[in-house]
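[scheduler] slot 2 assigned
[scheduler] job type: sequence-to-structure, two independent chains
[scheduler] chain ordering preserved from manifest
[runner] begin chain α
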Amino acid sequence: MNRIPLRKRLLVRLLFASVLIAVCSVAATAWLAVATTTRALREEQGQALADDMDILAELSGYAATHPDWTGVEATVRALSAKTGRRIALTTTTDRTTTDRTPVADSAPHGASLPPRAAATVDPLRTDTYTERGAQLSGIDPRAVGPYRLTAAERTKLDALARKRQSCFARHGFDTSVTRTPSGRPVLTDDDGTVDAGHVPEACADGLLYSATPTEEKALTALQGPARRCLTRVGFDDFAPLFLTTDVTSGTSMAPSVTAKFAKIDDSKSLRAAQACLDDARRAQLDPYVAPVAELYLGVGDSGAAPRWDMSTANKAKVVGAAGLVLAVTVAVTAVVATRLVRPLRALTEAAQQPPDRHARVPVTTRDETGILAEAFNDLAERRERLEAQRKALVSDVAHELRSPLTNIRGWLEVTRDGLVEPDTELLGALHDEALVLQRVIDDLRDLAAADAGTLRLHREPVPADDLLAQVAAAHRVAADTAGVRLRTETAGAPWLDADPVRLRQALGNLVTNAVRHTPAEGTVTLTARGDGEVVVLEVADTGTGIAAEDLPHVFERFWRAEKSRSRRTGGSGLGLPIVRHLTAAHGGTAEAAGTPGAGSVFTLRLPAATAPGDG
């Protein structure tokens, strides 16, 4: 940092930029009065908007608790007097008519309506109660209809609430009793509904929040319409519906569905099922709420535009605000610049650490510097992972090459010392070890070519049935020796666009692997079928299978399900990675599936080709 010139340091440049911005802000202070006026007007508009939302919420509450609009005139006039707004309610229009019938209006009779409605009052589709100042999609919690408790039920629940409140108090919880729109008491504290959190065991009697006869009756009535709707949308076979009431919420008394439908296992179907419940609830509550109405809000004419004059006092305020803006801008920018430079210094120190330490830096911000720190940490993690993979690769390659070389060296030394005669059996064993060594080297060469992108393919149309027959013929002797039945199946006459040699190599690796892990009397099946623009090749066996936790690793290099490195338990660990690379080189995919004790299935999806003569 000391070698960086002062004028080029990031902190100095940021400070210079902040001073320049501050000077520009001083030049713009002449607009301060206008900005102040605009802010005042916006605050007034914000208050008007809040008043409008309060009006809508009040009228929605009236509609939710009355079967019609009879008597709403008094409420409309009281709200108009409180807010100074003109409030009018009319019936809604439909496709057949554009006439609106007045329901209530705070303005004199005959006054024209505003050009468009401010909102629609519909408690069955808009919730203005749960969150003040917002319109949420859903049923207004105040629309309780048949769920409203009787006086006897409220009296009984009030006694239970006081009993539970006393129990909570004995355990150190200060609570109060609030009442939901349906009349049900709920225990709450400063943080919300206490019964939604930890309930002392002594207080958990389960009586306070059990459904009352009124609620049970309403929920039972809801079952039929919900079931009929589910049948209409195609859910004929489903588990019984269990409808409950959400009684632990201080603002909701609506029923909720807790059923698990037998054939509904995706979010789209679950939304359709929930829509059936919502429609049934709206139909159940409809007789208890007022009809949908349009709300019109008018602006009063008593307010005049505020005047503003640049007086001496206002000029002093402008100058003082300008100086304050300059000082605050410089101070804030210095703080921000310091905080910005600190993570950059941490990045520099981490980058200067020895490579083998793989240093990380803390991510303290979410800006560009934080993104850079995350990228640096990701790079360090990838380096560490690649280094571990490199070490593991070197270790595995050394082991795979050392085993056959050790065997060859040992036999040659004992033969040289005259301890063993170089007979045919010995030469065969040495030849087998040499073949193992050659196979490992060939596999490594193929993988290196695939990694380098130099793996060449000679594509041509290949009949799938001939390909399977050739692979089966090549491995028939090995399968018969192991007592494994090897058979092929082809659906139709699919053709592949592939390199036949490389494809035989991939399928050969799969068949070898399947035969190795299939016991005597087992079966290995090669199948091929067309699937649109791809051909699906499968190698299935009835062997030991693959555990679920091992499936993500089967295509990794040198990985074996058995942890032993004995060659009797498996191959070199390169066969399946080669299959994956050869399939990817053809533009296809390789997948593995299996169940322990029930066998495994390896599936290759490769591009299809048009049979010669069909074009």
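[runner] end chain α
[runner] begin chain β
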Amino acid sequence: MPDLQGLTQIQKGAATMVAQPWKRPELGDQPDLKKLNDELHDLRLDAGLPSARTIRDRIGKDAQDYWIVNHQAVLDAFQKPDLPPWGRLEIVVRVLAEVGGHSDVDGEVNRFKDLWKQVVRETVAQASVQPPADSTPADDDDVGDTTDHSEDLPKQDTKDSSGRATEEPPADRETSPDPEQAAAQFNYAEESLKGLILNAAQALWDDKDALRVFLGVVRRSEGFAKMADAAEERRPANATFYGVKSREFERPYSPARLELVTLHHRLDEHRLKRKWSFTDMEEQTGVSSDAWIRWYTHGELPEREALVAFSHMASLQMEDHVLLLGLWDAASAALEAQERSDILPSRISFDEAWAIRDPAAPRMWALAGIGGAGDGNLAAYGPDLGSGTAPAFAVAGPPGSGRSTALVNIARSLLALGTQLVLATPRPSPLRELADRDGVVACFNQDNIRHEELEETLSGASTEEPIVVVMDDAEALDECDARRVLRNLLEHGFDDGAALVLAGHEDKLRPHYPWLDRAKRAHRGLLLSPQERHAGDWIGIKTGNSVVGRPIIPGRGWLHLGDGHLMAVTVPR
């Protein structure tokens, strides 16, 4: 008789071993890679500490019954002191985010992609790897051979004679510092691009028209002409191991990305349901297959007439037809907004911006920035602090983005319209230069504001003679003595003739302090070069990847006036 009790203990022990944190590599001298690795381990913790084999099983196998990623490759992504290939990291992150119940899986993947790019930019500036000593670079003609790739390229698991998946070979080969050998090294991006070309040719093999168009584009690059010729004659094998769409060479995020992705997804669902090739779509809709391929592969917005023709030929239900056209309208509006942002000047003075304001602007209107007016011209935009859901306006951004400059513009515009100001600058700020201007009733330059002082200063405010508190570095005053006065201002400012304009670091503004949390209720503000997705919380709108993470450009930002639309603006300076 087997020892059931002992067997149970072994099973429990095995389960306990599975649900354990993994050892983290020593990355003290690589802070960016350490941050990426720490975030990856935290993501696994959120998912309940699944084992490497559980993650492997969740990712699954490809059409040839190979594991897309074996369990050792999963462990390497967590435990090796190297930057994992993006393709492998992408699907591991996606699986963990799904298992962990993240509401925005794509957003989580994109967050890790930004971290991965940061490591590449700052610690792997020259991203190339040395070929194995006993091999030579694969010739472009050998499109069917998927085993002769550079070591850092993702590799498909192979099978032994028994049909079992073998482990991936280690990818931690040392690179030689010899300049002559370095010149002969593979270029990671080029080798990855070769793999993508081979995969695309295989995917399009059954649609000869689409394959012809694709390979015609490939041939425009002389270095890939032979590869294209060979791929046209013989169907290539998969060149990558992970079997999912790569994002290594994706186009910059569009402001209409969500609508475009959803639109293309819906079109693809209907196309695959009817088993239409692009040639079939040309015959069915009268729109050329080249146009459909371009819209499909480049992520572009199809012509509205093409969607109408597709809907008619596919005999879509009314709700599907309306959904497609609604997505098209939303994407078109977002792209038009982007076009208006392209006409923004890189620099404009306050006087130039003030000259194009609306002469009928109310007394508590503040100049926040210059944006496109929709007719090819520029217009001045900003909030009316005397109306809205709360008497507040927030300016958020990282250091060097121009927060203080934006505050100075807002202060100057309010003074020009006859509104009195109270300045609060707990740290050195250009705002202090306005302290002697007519209309400035007080200037608090300390890292604390006393309750009695601010209360007395605001006692003279009324709807006829309003007072606006303009505060720089607001995070330094979150627990000041006058916080109850500030909270009262945000609750009753419309009746008392008072309002607040605050600016702060997007990562240091803390919403759990009552008066700061009430400032968020205005649902309006200016984001300058936002770097974090949560920055939009301060102005009452969600910010996607098309907005955050771009290089910091002083004076360029996104304005929200409470209407649900982000507007690209230039801040006068």
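[runner] end chain β
[qc] chain β: Residues 172 and 246 are 22 Å apart (CA to CA).
[scheduler] slot 2 released
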